[in-house]
Design goal:
246 residues, Rossmann fold, two-stranded antiparallel sheet, 5 helices, globular, alpha/beta
């Protein structure tokens, strides 16, 4: 553990700004390639669990993309490593060609991701990952499935300076998307009866008319609960993500 972790206050450099996290007492360790499950102490007696996937090609002298992956709903109960599950089932296989570090936090208070507690925990974790690993700040993507898809819409809209792409999957878009800035590639299934695709289709059309880079990929077959089946569509979005990152 680095000496900085011994201090209650940690100052982090991100996107050229100094961001202070007075509650942070721990740091994210640099781990070998593979999928790992960890916890991050938040310094106020609480912690956030997370899974992190480090690509086989990772080297500390090369900047790599970073993906923040938000998991599906957990019915208001303990998250039970839901971050690891969405990473393992969907985000990892779907975005493997990006050779990105993928971090998937566990929701703290049962959700949604837009609560103040979850927001603070997720942003702290994101900052700490960027502090520990060699991340390209111009290639930071937020994605998620179902509740996590709604969370991806939320974080990209509220914190546009932190993300350079958003990929909400089977999530509800915000009621309004005024002043939207982040390129967004939404993924949805026509057979989704829990979160119908019409709302996403409408929001993407509005963003396009406003001049925002926005696309919707509609799948024909998965139901809402066939999480892993959405990976085929996620793989199809990789070229679009790479294009905007050039």
């Amino acid at each position: 553990m680095r000496a900085a972790s011994l201090f209650v206050g940690i100052v982090i450099v991100i996107f050229g700004e100094m961001v202070s996290h007075p509650l942070a007492q721990d740091v994210v360790p640099v781990l070998p390639p593979g999928l790992h499950t960890r916890t991050l102490e938040r310094g106020n007696g609480s912690r956030i669990g997370y899974a992190i996937s480090v690509p086989a090609t990772y080297a500390p002298d090369v900047h790599v993309p970073l993906v923040l992956a938000l998991h599906f709903g957990v019915q208001g109960g303990p998250s039970m490593n839901a971050g690891r599950e969405v990473l393992r089932l969907l985000i990892g296989p779907g975005l493997i060609d990006l050779n990105a570090i993928i971090v998937a936090p566990d929701v703290i208070d049962g959700g949604p991701w837009s609560t103040e507690t979850n927001e603070q925990a997720v942003l702290l974790l994101l900052d700490q990952v960027m502090r520990s690993y060699s991340v390209d700040p111009k290639k930071v993507l937020v994605t998620g499935f179902s509740m996590g898809g709604s969370g991806a819409w939320h974080f990209a809209g509220k914190y546009p300076d932190r993300f350079t792409a958003a990929v909400p999957i089977a999530g509800r878009p915000p009621a309004m998307a005024e002043s939207w800035r982040v390129p967004v590639f939404a993924l949805h299934s026509r057979r989704d009866q829990v979160v119908p695709f019409a709302g996403t289709e409408q929001r993407i059309d509005e963003l396009k008319r406003a001049g925002v880079t926005a696309e919707l990929l509609l799948l024909e077959s998965p139901t809402h609960y066939q999480t892993a089946a959405h990976a085929v569509g996620l793989r199809q979005l990789v070229p679009l993500i790479r294009q905007i990152w050039k």
